[in-house]
Write a structure and sequence with these properties.
Rossmann fold, 8-stranded mixed beta sheet, 4-stranded mixed beta sheet, 15 helices, 49% helix
Length: 347
């Protein structure tokens, strides 16, 4: 498998199937999906293809059909999953925090199988998640499960745990999409992904990845600023009785609260992590933020549901996450996080 253009995709959810798979498929990579759901894996193998509906700002869609993949269940087909990882050069990991331990155990088993098979080629793991300090969490968990000194050395020297910025949002498929394809993915259309520039094998050929330095810090910026804005809009929208996140665009009060909360979060990043306002503006200009938000997140044709955006509250209201994290940083540095606090209260 090392000599092939192949990606092992761990997590076959909205990000994995609707974003990462699309980027690698477009570059001619064969895909192997690993997912915990036996029902999903059975359906993927039985159908043999699925459709990505990439929605655009004008309300139209582009359809992309993904086929000729392999799919294994991490719960019931552990040996096949471990074998696929052991042969891979590139692995993408898109999971929830609760799966870090089990997937790290699988990665440790794959490293030790890789070495037993005489394969000492480097392994690049792209981590595209919406929780903080992911590479550190994975490295610590993998270390815990490695049983040999050779495995520990391989992890330290030849495994890159590459944090990525997920730019493409994923919504629940509509009834019309599911009628056409029961495995449909409803995805945004951002054509690239930003990645930490620490690859061991080099960038995967032809894949539209944008390498950048210090992505883990920018991951905090993404969650505290971008993800916070999206969640806060949803919480306010739910209180207002809206159904879709796009309806928030037409509510000037929600938009004002979101923009002012974002200012508090930018202050928090500056004080807590030393990012200059100029650096943040250059990375994500205010006008570009506004244009992207209105075009891709809060436009009147966006049918991403408020209920989806407001889901998983325990994780999203955790101490270091999108609302409480920047709010605490503001308080530690002398600023009252009024609008961040209002967002948390609305949740």
């Amino acid at each position: 498998m090392n000599n092939e253009k192949r990606l092992v995709q761990i997590g076959a959810g909205k990000i994995g199937r609707g974003y990462i798979a699309d980027l690698f498929n477009e570059a001619g990579y064969r895909l192997t999906f690993l997912d915990y759901s036996p029902e999903l894996i059975k359906s993927m193998n039985a159908q043999g293809y699925y459709t990505i509906f990439k929605h655009h700002a004008d309300g139209t869609y582009t359809k992309v059909v993904i086929r000729d993949y392999q799919a294994y269940c991490t719960q019931t087909q552990n040996d096949q999953c471990v074998s696929a990882i052991a042969q891979a050069s590139y692995v993408s990991i898109n999971i929830f925090p609760g799966a870090v331990d089990s997937i790290s155990k699988m990665l440790a088993e794959a490293i030790e199988l890789r070495l037993r098979n005489g394969n000492e080629a480097p392994l690049d793991c792209l981590i595209g998640v919406n929780f903080l300090f992911a590479s550190k969490l994975f490295r610590e968990a993998i270390e815990k499960y490695l049983t040999t000194e050779a495995g520990q050395s391989f992890l330290a020297e030849k495994v890159a745990l590459i944090e990525c910025l997920v730019h493409r949002n994923g919504a629940f498929p509509t009834e019309e999409m599911l009628t056409e394809d029961p495995l449909a993915c409803n995805s945004g259309d951002t054509p690239y992904m930003t990645v930490d520039n620490i690859f061991k094998n080099g960038l995967p050929a032809g894949v539209n990845l944008h390498p950048q330095e210090n992505v883990p810090a920018w991951m905090i910026h993404k969650i505290w600023v971008a993800n916070m804005s999206h969640s806060l809009s949803g919480y306010f929208g739910k209180k207002a009785g809206y159904t879709y996140i796009g309806e928030c665009h037409d509510d000037p009060y929600i938009m004002r609260c979101m923009i002012l909360a974002k200012r508090e979060a930018v202050f928090a990043m500056h004080e807590a992590y030393g990012m200059s306002y100029e650096e943040m503006e250059a990375h994500d200009p205010v006008e570009k933020q506004k244009e992207h938000y209105l075009d891709h997140v809060a436009n009147s044709v966006d049918k991403d549901t408020i209920d989806r955006v407001c889901g998983d509250l325990i994780r999203k209201l955790a101490k270091g996450d999108r609302l409480i994290g920047p709010a605490l940083a503001c308080m530690q540095h002398g600023r009252i996080p009024y609008f961040l606090a209002r967002g948390a209260a609305m949740a």
